[in-house]
């Protein structure tokens, strides 16, 4: 049953905390795991295992199987959220610092609110939200300015476009999940994971030949990161997000974008030895300020 409007249940708070903290740590986890194993193949392994485990749990607890329309809806959302949205992040962190990718994903509320306005609720964002969107994207432009000297970037800029596309797909999946007929909660999340995993696997077959042969070469830290991504990042983090997407207002769910970049930047610096320059710090402050304004200005 959905929580009453305007009230935060204890389950909603716990799910928000899980998405805030756990997802912030998955950027570094993907960075470590993709050092050897290609990103699409890693995502397929991650979500096929996590989805299979969750499907068993769902069958035991919910004792039901969705109709064809609900099954296809869950598959569609899974491809949008996981097959494209999450996997493009894994591709980006393979080539760029994990904290910077998290800052790009921080723009998610802008995509969700903009697409909700254009295609779903038709509710025009408030002036404060629009100002927040402009500020947030200005911060990202400052960080990834394509007109800056080449020496200013120690990484390629093409993954920026990949993440933007992934953000749009993730926003679409988040908005559709509240509007499509979906299976029961656990089963729905499991099907989404499996659909996203299957999609990533076929993309890997096309664009990552020989990916299977990288598994024996993965070091212990890579396997540890993979296990963390499956058990914590997917089973706990994504399940929490899936529940929020169906039971919480989109604007509240989008607030994870405040915390994720901070957690990712800190872990990338403390564990991944990623540099946090003055420009990164200023850009991060601008982006996060914009995100806060977006959601605070959101009309209830």
UniProtKB/TrEMBL annotation:
Native organism: Chitinophaga hostae
Protein name, entry field: EamA family transporter
Residue stretches spanning the membrane: 12-30, 36-59, 71-93, 99-120, 127-144, 156-177, 189-213, 225-244, 256-272, 278-297
Top-level division of the source organism's lineage: Bacteria
Membrane topology label: Multi-pass membrane protein
Subcellular localization(s) per the UniProt record: Membrane
Pfam short name (any one): EamA
Keyword Cytoplasm carried by entry: no
Domain EamA: 11-144, 159-295
SUPFAM superfamilies: Multidrug resistance efflux transporter EmrE (SSF103481)
Keyword Ligase recorded: no
Keywords: Membrane, Transmembrane, Transmembrane helix
Homology family: Belongs to the EamA transporter family.
């Amino acid at each position: 049953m959905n929580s009453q409007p305007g009230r935060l249940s204890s389950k909603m708070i716990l799910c928000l905390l899980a998405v805030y903290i756990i997802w912030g740590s998955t950027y570094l986890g993907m960075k470590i795991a993709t050092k050897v194993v290609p990103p699409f193949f890693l995502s397929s392994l991650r979500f096929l295992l996590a989805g299979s485990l969750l499907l068993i749990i769902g069958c035991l607890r919910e004792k039901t199987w969705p109709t064809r329309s609900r099954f296809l809806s869950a598959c569609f959302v899974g491809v949008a959220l996981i097959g494209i949205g999450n996997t493009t992040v894994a591709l980006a962190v393979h080539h760029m610092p994990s904290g910077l990718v998290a800052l790009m994903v921080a723009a998610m509320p802008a995509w969700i609110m903009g697409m909700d306005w254009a295609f779903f609720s038709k509710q025009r964002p408030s002036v404060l939200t629009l100002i927040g969107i402009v500020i947030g994207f200005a911060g990202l432009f400052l960080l990834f300015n394509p007109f800056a000297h080449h020496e200013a970037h120690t990484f390629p800029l093409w993954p920026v476009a990949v993440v933007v596309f992934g953000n749009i797909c993730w926003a679409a999946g988040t908005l559709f999940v509240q509007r499509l007929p979906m299976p029961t909660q656990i089963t729905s999340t499991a099907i989404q994971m499996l659909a996203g995993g299957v999609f990533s696997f076929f993309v890997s077959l096309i664009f990552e030949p020989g990916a299977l042969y990288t598994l024996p070469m993965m070091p212990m830290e890579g396997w540890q990161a993979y296990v963390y991504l499956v058990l914590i990042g997917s089973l706990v983090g994504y399940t929490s997000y899936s529940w929020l997407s169906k039971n919480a207002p989109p604007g509240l769910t989008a607030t994870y974008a405040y915390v994720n970049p901070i957690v990712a930047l800190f872990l990338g610096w403390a564990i991944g030895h990623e540099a946090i320059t003055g420009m990164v710090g200023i850009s991060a402050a601008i982006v996060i300020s914009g995100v806060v304004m977006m959601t605070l200005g959101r009309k209830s």
